[in-house]
Amino acid sequence: MHIICCVKQVPDTAQVKIDPETNTLIRAGVESICNPYDVVAVEAAVRLAEKYGGKVTVISMGPPQAESALRECLSLGAHEVILLTDRAFAGADTLSTSATLSLAIAKVAQTEPVDVVLFGKQAIDGDTAQTGPGTATRLGFNQFTYVSEIIGVDLEKKTIRVRREVEGGSEIIEGRLPVLLTAELELAAPRYASLPELVRSLTQEVKAWTAADLGGQPEMFGLKGSPTMVKQIFTPPKRGGGLVFDSTENKEQAISSFFDTFFGKETELLNELFSNGQG
């Protein structure tokens, strides 16, 4: 079985800041991490390869520093990693990104047929959950989104059964390979890297492919292939704190102040409701 995982290096969202003049993310000095949902997807892929036999290839599109995210995937047990890096890829939206990734997956499949493709359900910097399904559509693969459990794979029948989360519960579905899955956090808890895998992750080659390696028309990459336009981006205003009733010095006074405030607000709301009803 050949499994491909697509991962993204993202800014640590706890440290993201926005330039008020340019309305763009300030990435300088901000730590980058491998998207947590994608790390789960890699763990799930490695477990599949361990259980059924096979190979895990990890692909990432990004600047040269995204190599560190791929080396993390090697430390988790991935067998091969490929970095798609080219200035032509810059500024890509989900449509252009899915086009680029699908070309890369198709190129890999020319020599090593692909059975399963795994994505995290979404990236924490964009939260669109569109790139995985978009890639599946371009490849013509069956797609199962929001997967929380891989129940089993039948290699003879070329089928896979999974549990996926839906509104109000979950469902068990089965489909034919090749398939693309998007992973929920519950799918697999990432392991701690072993020392041999850590050493391998530091020494193994990271293949680098450019737009020329993938083929395709130049207008499908990066900004040229991205119809999405961001009009404005901003930091939400800070919310003021609520009322504080300090009981350290006078407990009775704090309780009295709380009830006076609480019932005062209740009275205001009731008066407003009655006045609206009479109008």
Q: Could you state the CATH homologous superfamily of the largest domain?
A: HUPs
Q: Extract low-pLDDT stretches.
A: none
Number of DSSP strands?
13
Strand order of the largest sheet: 11-10-9-12-8-1-6-7-13
| CATH class division of the largest domain | Alpha Beta
- Radius of gyration (Å): 25 Å
In CATH, the topology of the largest domain is named Rossmann fold
Give the amount of beta strand, in percent. Answer: 25-35%
Task: State mean pLDDT (0 to 100 scale).
Answer: 89
Provide the fold topology:
Elements lengths: L1 E6 L1 E3 L5 E2 L6 E2 L5 E3 L1 H17 L2 E7 L5 H9 L4 E5 L9 H16 L6 E5 L10 H9 L2 E13 L4 E8 L2 E8 L2 E5 L11 H9 L3 E3 L1 H4 L36 H28 L1
Parallel strand pairs: 1-6, 1-8, 6-7, 7-13, 8-12, 9-12
Antiparallel strand pairs: 2-5, 3-4, 9-10, 10-11
Helix pairs in contact: 2-5, 3-4
Report a brief summary of the structure:
The protein is an alpha/beta fold and 279 residues long.
Write structural notes for this entry.
With about 280 residues, the chain is α/β, with parallel strands linked by helices. The protein folds into 2 domains: about 1-225, HUPs (Rossmann fold); about 240-279. Helices cover about 35% and strands about 25% of the residues. The chain contains 7 helices and 13 strands. The strands form 3 sheets. A 9-stranded mixed sheet has the order 11-10-9-12-8-1-6-7-13, sandwiched between helices. Strands 2-5 form a two-stranded antiparallel ribbon. Strands 3-4 form a two-stranded antiparallel sheet. The protein is elongated, with a radius of gyration of 25 Å.
